[in-house]
């Protein structure tokens, strides 16, 4: 069992020593996954206060929970090791040494712990685990136990445990009540989503079937367990299967158990065979642990060749970037267009696994420029859930389709009405409408970057047209104008507002884009347009109605619009200055304020008008963007993890680099340093994507528009070079950017590609590196 070299810190994350108070943090950090599933980095044998979890994309249930949950699925890691009858865990034996290392290069978590039993004998336990990227149905665990001081009996019991529960709404405890790590999760209620559907062994392979109670999804796990020597016993109960190996081990001797687990569900995309058969076939065809590990390494090597982002001269930043990219990669399944990425990816129960606008505005750019197949799959989810979006619109009294603020498997609204403790009311489900325009924005960005007109004129057009219909019904007359009342913009401190600038402008843009796509279809693919119009009942006059609505809608438009009022009456809100900052130099709430009592103030939770400048930079002059950035930046308390990255990017674009590194650090290390104190609940996946965007779009000055790729690097002084790759219409451009020079290479057959570097045109021929000097 070979752990990665300890010298290259840019490719690994390490836990050195055992601290139970930090264990939940590392459970999140050490999540292994492959886009289809994610498994938290809990110890195989667990510990008091553990919060383990395996989450399978798309497996939701709402049997006894207020809104639907991403199900905490059966646990494939479940393992115990005994030495002469003593259980080797952090409480039954003394931990002498403990080290874990997540190898970002191949998604493998290595563990080495030395335990001391009561008579002083030491035993070393090593494990290696991964969720295969080569076969997304396969998970693998290797266990090695070494007797360091004396001979003894070693027992390894490992299996699949189907007795799993989700966390549920906790009671309201007295103010300032706190519970230690040992009990804090015990104080939550639980939701039950799984029932056993059979277990047993066939030809030595254990099979456990479970079923979600409300949604009726079958989950099948197949367990293949092998070892050299030893005595094997296999057992099953209604909700578990397990294999136990018994060994007599001499001094210095190591025993090894390999475990392969195949996972299949009845909702798997385009799967025909029953889940039990597919799960068994997965472990049979894997060819053993070593073969599976080799295939996994090869798959990761191909992914990193396209996705890596490196800062020469700053290893800590490179580590943060690779850590972010790793978690992005294991969050997306390019083979399944029926699932998307929740706000905590597949690394925890935070936000119940629900999908937000984060996917379209924060996550999609990374996949669009590094993993376009995954980007296409993420957009596929929005088409898959379009029927649910139609239901949401109908429930709110309009036609067309309105995307839910929080969605899951169906596209219907899944946003809770109250905070987990039941104390405070959320209005996001009723009022945060901009997600519908954000989806349209993502569709047009994907089509522009990839040139995939089959998608644009197919699923993309259907979404654009149906959502445009929603906006026509949602806008209200106000004299000669149209307005959008009672909404909430990205800044969630302010609800029930009228004419949120971000929402109105995105709607204005959305309606024009929908009309343009309709016109292109009429010119270029009239037969496709007829088919689509017939299927959704689209009338000839509707595109004209979209344009007329856009033209009457109050929306901030350059030139010379100055500081844009975030919503009607914002300028009259009480100005509450930010006067304190935390240890990360980020704003603290002014005394007496919190998330739920900022309505009457000018304080912002996160970028709103500044986010508009980020998404539509070509709609506003640099002067307008700078004026708005300077005005709103000093009013933003950054209580969303996606906030710092957007401020870093826009600040750099308008020439204000004074805060860019600080904001970048807040985004890049939000989970590595747990600088918000809640990483234990799951990865801030939008922040991970924002980190990549700051590096590439901010410091790298990278921008893609209809006329091609643009680079204008402005690196921080501590960075020597920035290296990354971007996909552009079927080919890859590799960029190696310095302070005074930049190097590029076009990979892929075809004609030359024209790019712009520091404002000057540069021609790239396939396979021929080009170096450019800064002006």
UniProtKB/TrEMBL annotation:
An MF annotation (GO) of this entry: hydrolase activity
Domain called Glycoside hydrolase family 65 C-terminal: residue spans: 703-764
Domain of life of the native organism: Bacteria
Span of domain Glycoside hydrolase family 65 N-terminal: 15-267
UniProt cross-references to SUPFAM superfamilies, sorted A to Z: Galactose mutarotase-like (SSF74650), Six-hairpin glycosidases (SSF48208)
Keyword list, A-Z: Glycosidase, Glycosyltransferase, Hydrolase, Transferase
Keyword check for Transferase: yes
Keyword Transcription: no
Domain Glycoside hydrolase family 65 central catalytic: 322-693
Recorded family membership: Belongs to the glycosyl hydrolase 65 family.
Protein name in UniProt: Glycoside hydrolase family 65 protein
Species this protein is from: Nocardia lasii
Organism lineage: Bacteria, Bacillati, Actinomycetota, Actinomycetes, Mycobacteriales
